Every structure is written in structure tokens, then in C-alpha cells.
Amino acid sequence: MQLYAGSTTDFIADSVQHRVAEKLGDAFYEYFRFRASASEFSAWQNSLTALTSHIQYSRLLDNGIVLELQLPLSSSRLDAMLTGRDDAGRERAVIVELKQWTKAVPADVDDCVMTFLGHRERTVPHPSIQAANYRRYLADMNSAFYAEPGPVELDGCAWLHNLDDSSRTALTGTPFAGALAAAPLFTGHDAVPFRDYLQERLSAGGGMPVLDKIVHGGFAPSKKLLEHASRMIAGEPAYTLLDDQIVAYETILTLARRGLRTKSDHAVVVVRGGPGTGKSVIALNVMATLLAEGRNVQHATGSKAFTESLRKRLGPRARALLQYFNSFGGADAGAIDVLVCDEAHRIRTSSSSRFTPKARRTDRAQVEELIDASRLAVFFIDDHQAVRPAEVGSTTLIREAAVRLGARYRETELSTQFRCAGSDEYVDWIDQLLEVRKTGRFELGEHAGFEFRIFDTPAELDAAIRAKARGGYAARMTAGFCWRWSDPRPDGTLVDDVEVGAFRRPWNAKPDAARLARGIPKASFWASDPGGLDQVGCVYTAQGFEFDYAGVIFGRDLRWDPESREWIGDKSVSHDSVVKRAGARFTDCVKNTYRVLLTRGMRGCYVTFLDDATRELFASRARTP
To answer: Tell me, what's the pLDDT at 82?
Structure first.
């Protein structure tokens, strides 16, 4: 998706006649179904007027230009890209990251600076790092930049056309030498160097065929977390971090490297983000980087499926690095340099359970154990993903524990979307529809960039999911917990518990199943093993994972009542004995369950509803095929 694409001569004409911002605004509304903010509209007017002048000054009059190009499978958008050929006839493209900043000052986070945005000072990625990462991400994900013969050569730069010259030092100092080499930074005082940079790459013109190749380039296969985890831990770059991910990543590394001066120092970082914002990607990148530096790093979750899948993928040598939240009750204070706590919404009140030996039982809060065991505890959390009453993890819980224990506290938030085809709109729509949080997104537009489809029956849904799997996509069927979950038969086969009319499928295997028939994966590997396609997954095996296409059977344990216009949680049709004991939290837990299931897909979500009123609500709020 892009909001504007055409020749530089047309762009200049549109700009001179003050049409560019209006065209961008109309395209923005057509795609997102709401109007761009006044600040974004103003940024378009100011930055693109400056860019127009510089294109004219650089005499790039036979070139292509694309504005607000969305990166594949991400909600991030490039400000501008110019296309053309160099003097040797090679096809080239240059990303131009535009900033209106007037001032910038050093930040206390590596690779970042401070500037005034949104009526307050913010820590943001250095513009050259942002441009370089956009370049790397796009080069990996758009076939125009890697397909033979003759891939387009891609460069990136940053242009801060309003920057006060007194701020130049903050952006061009020695700490940013590598970033500036990868993506040079220009200010309004650098008209000649910036012109020369663009002319060296684009002066031969002929930009429209190059632009067409990029705009219509195919997407590389999506990078699955588990497939690349082992490469990351081995120190190989498998994911490129973008925008707010960079701030979170560098905040953690800065504290780990230089923020803890003595053994008694300890700190807490909370990274908040909704589904698909890359929390686990950052967690594993942090772990890989710090392990390569020789630091004592541990990774912990409250999810058996996620942890066991990581252990299987990374091999026996990494097993000791991958633990559970309840593993640190006996650890010495500060024994671990950095404890990376992923899926922190699954933190429980206490690490003790009915299986804990009496001598080791404690009433101490689990969150305090995690903070105390490490010099730096990092919590990746979504405050709306707790699906069981015993899961008490929240930003507030962690912040209050940090204060009690005297730890320094930092918090950062992720908004860039990498799941749901990079569609913020889809996630906001789900949250508003389920009344998980107010987003103001009452309708899902047909241009949301994500395939949402409603099927009449589970059988039709199953057929669609299997068709995607045959096409080479990762695809799985999930459901609300509305059917019993039987033990395997003596021969290891599974009982077809999920029954809807003529449709019958088994749940994924129980976590404690000792013997399973050939081809049936253990519960922990249902999401990654091809055999998982033949079972219906529950939320406990799907949470934390992602698929290209997610299928969901939306049961009657959560129903929309059109008369009262409210969601009804119905315990009588739930088979989740733990959640049924949640009391007043039952409905919230079931809402969170369906929120998790409906946001597992990277390219699409297919749903069938067992309740007619609920189906009608979703259908009336979505433009579906």
C-alpha cells in the first residue's frame, strides 16, 4: 500500500498547486476509513513542500516518487522514496526519511535522541538508524530488491530540513558514525551535498519503470519467530527492528551495559504492546545481543507451549537459558544479569502450586521473585491478554513491585504492527468490538490490508484453512473452550471432542499426554508441527504463536445480546473449569481468549460463529467477501 505514487514532474505540479497533502489525506481516508490527524496533515504540507524544492534543485525531473509506502507485513510507512537510474544505467531507489524537527538533544538510550513531538519531549530512534533499518527491512521483504535478474539497488538517507544548526552535533557525533555511514543525514544547510547524493544515484532518470517494479514487487515469505530464533541466538541478524522497537531494544541494552554500576543496583523495564507489535522478536534480539557480549541472560515465560517450542528449536545447549516464571523462587538476589520475561501478562500471584513441596512453598509475589533474581528485569506485556483468573500480570503490578523493591523503573510502548498484515485497524477493530479497550474503530474497512472472512460452517472454515496450508502457508484452526477435552485413547489417538453438526475434530493433545499415536504432535509443538493441522487448538497452545492464516470457531461461551447491547459470558457452555471459577472476571477472561485467537494471523483470519447474533454483529461491522 502507498498513499501517493507517480512521476516527479507530476509531484512537483501537485505540490505547486497545493494538491499533494489533499491527495494523501483522501488516500489515507480511503484506506484507513478515518481522517489523518491535523499534525500528520501539517507534516505532509511542510516536509513535502521542502522536498519539492529540493527535487527541482537536484534536477530530478524524469524520476519516480512514492509517498507513505507501507512496509510489507508492518504498519510502518516510509515517508518518501525516489526512483531512477544512475549514470551506469543501474536501477536505483533512495529512501528519504523526512523530519520536521527543529532541535534534537542526546538521549540516555543508545542509538536514540530526544526531540519535541506531540507536545512533549520523546526518546526516538536516530533518523539515520530509522532510514537504514527501513532499507534493510524492505530489501529483505520486497522481491524488487533481491530477485534476479537485475535487482533494484536500494539506499536510504535522512533529511531534517528544519533542523537548527546548533543541534547538528547531537545527531552527527561519534556514537552515530556507523549509522551515518549506512544512511547519511542531511539538514537544510546541506543543499549541495544532498543534491550530489541524489544525483549520484538517480541522475539518469527513467524512474517510472523502477517505481512500478517496486510498487508491484512480491513479498518475501513472512519471517516466523521460531524459524529464526536459533539464528538470532547464534548472533545472526534475522529480524530488522523498526521505529518504537528500536527504542525499546536500545533502552534495554543501554541499561544492561552501563546503567547498573554496582552489584546492588537493579532496574525494571516494561515494554507494553498489543498483539503483533513484536514483543517476542525484541525479547529474543535482546537475548542474542547480550549473550554475544558474554552476559548472564535468562529468558522466562509462563507458557509451556512457547518455552518448549523455543527449547526444541534452539537445542539442548540453550535449554538452561529458557525457563518459566516459577523457576526463580530460590535464586540469589541479583544472580542473573538480565532476566527477559516474555508474555508477562501470564505472571501469577505466587510461584507455589499444589505440586510445590511444602518446604519450598512461599507466599512471596512471583513478580518480586523475578525482579529480585536479576539486576535488570525486562517485562514484555500486553495488559489485555490474561485468559485465566490466576494470571495477574499487568503494567501496574510490575510498576508497584519495582517501587517496593527500590528498583529503577522505565516503561516504553510499542505500536508498530507486524501481525495482521501490519493493520493497526484490524486490531483496533477487534478491541473495540469485544469492548476490551476503547479505540473508536467501529468498522473494519475493505482496505484494512488484512483478509477477514466469515464462513457459514466449521467444515467450510476447515476447508479454507487446509487450502491455505496446501498453498505453503502456515495455517491452524482454533476454537473457544466450548467442548470437553478428553484424554487420548489407549492407542494414543485423540477423541473428536469438537463437534458441530457433521463436523468433528479433536482438540490438540493435552499437555500431560504421555503416549500419542504417530503423527500427533505434543501440545507444546501443535503450533509448529505440520501434524497440528489435524487438531483444533485451544488458547493455551495458540497464545504466543502466529500463523499466516488463523481459523477461529467462535463458540457460545461469549455471545452478543442485541437487546441489552452487551456481551454475555455464558459459563454453562464453557468447558474451561479454571476460567469458570473466575467469578465476575469470567466474561473478561473469555473476551481476552477470543481477542488472542482472532489476532494470531499475519495475513488473514477466518471465522465461523455458532451464535447468530454474534455473527450478525461482526458481519455488520466488517466489509467481508
So the answer is: 98
